[in-house]
Amino acid sequence: MKTEAEIKEMVKQKYGEIALQDKESNQSSCCGSGSCSTEIYNIMSDDYTKLEGYDPHADLGLGCGLPTQFAKIKKGDFVIDLGSGAGNDCFIARAETGQTGKVIGIDFTPAMIQKARINAENLGFNNVEFRQGDIENIPVTANMADVIVSNCVLNLVPNKKAVFEDIFRVLKPGGHFSISDIVLTGELPEKIKSAAEMYAGCVASAINKNEYLSYIVDAGFENIQIQKEKPIIVPDDILKDYLNAEEIQAYKSKPTSIFSITVYGEKSASCCEPQSCCC
Fold first, then answer.
1. 176-186, pLDDT tens digit by residue?
2. Residues 238, 37: contact at Cβ < 8 Å?
């Protein structure tokens, strides 16, 4: 079992490599994590190309949903994107919040931050900022954000409970989040759970859906909703790198256990401080 520090270093290294690749290279890999699929095929990402603000240079094909589409962003909002990568969701959010709003992208990987900043400069955006940081300790002052989004990132973080607690801290009273992520409804084979490539590819690190939702409840959020849910079918050409034929058959004989969800939650307008609500 890897330590939290080892997991974080593995993720930083892998996504540093991904930052240097184009979308086509990432989509021919296992969730953008390495050369483990022979198909030009991404098993999780949704189509961003028709959303306002889309920039192909910022789309590395690494998401598992469209959280900005569900995030109820208004003109003038202060939006934070956790795990912002090359800036794709930030630029979509910027189209929603407009020139009077502000968007901050937080990412753990220096190469991603550099790529995102170049993309923002090329687009001429002066109200989109990128900060390097750990989303377990978001580098933003408390009670600042109107909206927080994230796309297929929390599953990479060892301490998901701490992330939701810090999302609560950073949101303004009355603020909300919309997050797309990978969750489980059953058990993954141990060989998949222990595979570094599958971890960086967002699958092996996923946790049980009920446990995931419990962290949101425990952090203090209200009006929690599943905005979208879809099954994730891992193709045989990826499974065969980790399982033998008999194990693949056994895995596929069970109900689908991997899902992409987009989940929404609100911080009460009466909350003055993190974990403290006053009426």
1. 999 999 898 88
2. yes
Per residue in 5-17, pLDDT tens? 666 666 666 665 6
133-152 tens-digit pLDDT:
999 999 999 999 999 999 98
Could you tell me which residues are beta bridge partners of residue 177?
A: 148, 265
Nearest to 184 by CA among 265, 264, 255, 82: 255
- 273: tokens are 């401080």
Residue where the block lists tokens 């939701």: 164
Q: Please give the radius of gyration of the chain, using alpha carbons only, rounded to the nearest integer.
A: 18
CATH topology of domain 4-270: Rossmann fold (3.40.50)
- The beta-strand segments (E) located in the chain are 78-82, 102-107, 128-132, 145-151, 171-184, 207-208, 222-231, 258-266, 271-273, 276-277
| The token pair that represents 85 in the structure block | 């990568």
Look at residue 35 and tell me whether its pLDDT is greater than 70. Answer: no
C-alpha distances (whole Å) from 237 to each of 89, 195, 279 are 29, 15, 55
Of 28, 36, 43, residue with least CA distance to 232: 43
Per DSSP, what are the bridge partners of residue 129? Answer: 104
Alpha-carbon span 254 to 276, nearest angstrom: 43
Residue among 43, 61, 3 nearest 198 (CA): 43
The token pair that represents 228 in the structure block: 């979208």
Beta bridge partners of 145: 171
- Characterize the bridge pairing of strands 128-132 and 222-231: unpaired
Q: In whole angstroms, what is the distance from residue 87 CA to residue 106 CA?
A: 10
Helix (H, G, I), strand (E, B) or coil at 204: coil
> Do the Cβ atoms of 112 and 135 come closer than 8 Å?
no
pTM exceeding 0.70: yes
